[in-house]
Design a protein that fits this description.
The structure holds 2 protein chains of 2 kinds. In chain A, α2 packs across α12. Chain A has 2 domains: about 35 residues, no CATH class; about 230 residues, MetI-like fold (Orthogonal Bundle), CATH 1.10.3720.10. By secondary structure, chain A is mainly α. In chain A, β3 and β4 form a beta hairpin. Chain A contains 12 helices and 4 strands. By secondary structure, chain B is mainly alpha-helical. Classes of the chains: A mainly alpha, B mainly alpha. At the A-B interface, α1, α3, α4, α5 and α6 of A face α1, α3, α4, α5 and α6 of B. Chain A: One of its GO terms (biological process) is transmembrane transport. Chain A: Keywords: Cell membrane, Membrane, Transmembrane, Transmembrane helix, Transport. Chain A: It is found in: Cell membrane. Chain A: Belongs to the binding-protein-dependent transport system permease family. CysTW subfamily.
């Protein structure tokens, strides 16, 4: 078709969108990378002196009195660990609740499925902040759960749920759950039920069929869902800020701190790059797996 | 063992977990909405029906101010993004592979992959230096940032729609001596409308939902509804916030339902 001559035309049509994207999305990322190798300015901002100090300070710190003594920067490592741990736990909760939910929807009568799916999608499209606020109203000390339990006499004083890891975990699982259900459903929808039937015909028990027939077949949806939950969870900012407060920060909040009170832009830039590296690594691993998968199945 | 009505699709316990999950998805939202109509301040005790918190929300000038800003920002960003995404979709679909196509896809989808907080601080740095250089403090930065963020969401449904269009229709138009512009205006564009509408609505919802990028890019006095709420959540919250959140919820619900109706018609 219009191959050679068409190329310029294709680029011209795409150019306005690309211009906006480069100016307001991709381009600034390059600045962050550059800033991460500069020195902090006095009042925020940067001084144009090349330095790898920001990257060093991500993980290590020097003793105030003796710069030769290098120790782990525990304050940062605690936040990194919390981010990874809470994101993995969020992914696990979403999988445990999402798998049966997606199965339930995929096994409804075909004309009913769209409605069930719609029920899952609505919360996904409602504002993240509104949903986080809804969780806050449930679990804060004067919130619905505590007030109810107090009145029923189950507890003598409110359970402190806000500003804990638990609160952040509940919030993230609540907010990201649809991201797990949707790809799982897509995989289950394509599942050939005759294979499940064959499993039972061959005297497989329910658990055996689930483990050896259903699970391997819907694994692509499961992996996609895990990636879709893990990536926004590790980069979460709003949920840990609202439900976690200052004591249970995640990486996103630590990054913001460097641009606010911390006033160390290079360090914040290095942290942002670290987050980006983790996300890109997760995506690359996923794409490699997804591309390798069909060959494995044929072989 | 009598397997009279053995149903292979049934896995014991799954139905219960599924129903529980769906209920859990809605309970927090329903409680939020319920207590927006409460006569008292409590989030647990029903003290009678009242619209006082809605009245308070509507009378609150700051709320009016940030809501109007959010709405026009979403319309502007989704509008511009839809136009740009339509052009880009026309440039990247229904053609053979060309040099740089992968680069275009990567650039278009990049906002979907990079965590919002990273894009946020990147824009914060970039915008700060432009502000110093030009002295411009207006809404342009937010419009640009939201537009870039909306482009992938607008692009996807438009591209999906384009891929299902029959190229023969345009060839037929060309055979009947339609110029490329006429063919586009009278054949391609009308067929593309459902995709464009869906793209605009997705972009609109996404822009309304955007908190982190706005929070980092905005100058003083440029709060949107989400950043205003984010700031308020720090303080003691009254059910006025429930009322605002419920209205916000209703707006998203209307747009999402419209989106589903539009994309359903596309399938039919």
């Amino acid at each position: 078709m219009r191959r050679r001559g068409g190329t310029l035309w294709n680029w011209l049509l795409s150019a306005p969108a690309l211009l906006v994207l480069v100016l307001a999305a991709s381009g600034p990322l390059v600045i962050v990378l550059v800033y991460s190798f500069l020195s902090p300015g006095n009042m925020g901002g940067v001084a144009w002196e090349p330095s790898t100090d920001a990257w060093f300070r991500l993980f290590f710190k020097r003793d105030i009195f003796d710069p030769e003594v290098v120790t782990w920067n525990e304050a940062h490592l605690v936040v990194f660990w919390r981010s990874v741990s809470l994101s993995l736990q969020t992914t696990a909760i979403c999988a445990i609740l999402g798998f049966p939910t997606a199965w339930f929807i995929a096994t409804r009568a075909p004309h009913r499925r769209a409605l069930w799916l719609f029920l899952i999608t609505i919360p996904f499209w409602t504002n993240l902040l509104v949903r986080t606020f809804a969780i806050q109203e449930l679990i804060r000390n004067t919130g619905t759960i505590n007030s109810l339990l107090l009145r029923l006499g189950v507890i003598g004083e409110p359970i402190q749920m806000m500003y804990t890891d638990f609160a952040v975990l509940v919030g993230m699982a609540y907010v990201f759950l649809p991201l797990m259900v949707l790809p799982l459903y897509a995989a289950m929808d394509k599942l050939d039920m005759r294979l499940v039937e064959a499993g039972y015909d061959l005297y497989g028990g329910r658990l055996q069929v689930l483990r050896h027939v259903i699970f391997p077949l819907v694994k692509p949806g499961f992996v996609a869902g895990s990636i879709l939950v893990f990536i926004p969870a590790i980069g979460a900012y709003v949920t840990p800020r609202v439900l976690g407060g200052g004591r249970t920060m995640m990486l996103g909040n630590l990054i913001e701190l460097q641009f606010g009170q911390g006033r160390n832009w290079p360090l914040g830039s290095a942290m942002a790059m670290l987050l980006l590296i983790v996300v890109v690594a997760a995506l690359v691993l996923y794409l490699r797996w997804a591309n390798a998968e069909p060959e494995q199945r044929n072989g | 063992m009598a397997r009279r009505s053995f149903e292979v699709r049934r896995i014991p316990g799954f139905g219960a977990i599924a129903i529980l999950t769906i209920v859990l998805l809605y309970v927090p939202i329903l409680i939020l909405v319920t207590f927006s109509f409460n006569a008292g301040r409590s989030q647990a005790e029903w003290e009678g029906f009242s619209l006082q918190w809605y009245r308070a929300a509507f009378a609150n000038e700051q709320v009016q101010d940030v809501s109007i800003r959010s709405l026009w920002l979403a319309i502007a960003a989704a509008g511009i993004a839809t136009v740009l995404a339509t052009l880009a979709a026309l440039g990247t679909t229904r053609v053979g592979r060309f040099r740089g196509q992968t680069l275009i896809y990567a650039l278009v989808n990049q906002p979907l992959m990079v965590p919002e907080v990273v894009t946020g601080i990147a824009l914060l740095i970039f915008v700060a230096s432009i502000k110093v250089a030009t002295g411009y403090m207006g809404m342009g930065y937010l419009v640009a940032a939201h537009t870039a963020f909306c482009i992938p969401f607008a692009y996807l449904p438009i591209r999906a729609r384009l891929e299902t269009l029959d190229l023969n229709l345009e060839r037929a138009a060309a055979d009947l001596y339609a110029s490329p512009v006429q063919a586009f205006r009278h054949i391609t564009l009308p067929l593309l409308v459902p995709g464009i509408a869906a793209g605009f609505m997705l972009g609109f919802v996404i822009s309304l939902d955007t908190v982190v990028i706005t929070e980092f890019v905005k100058s003083a006095g440029q709060d949107t509804l989400p950043t205003y709420m984010l700031g308020q959540l720090r303080r003691a919250v009254t059910p006025e916030m429930n009322a605002i959140a419920s209205l916000f919820l209703a707006l998203s619900l209307v747009v999402v339902t419209a989106f589903f109706l539009v994309s359903r018609r596309r399938g039919a």
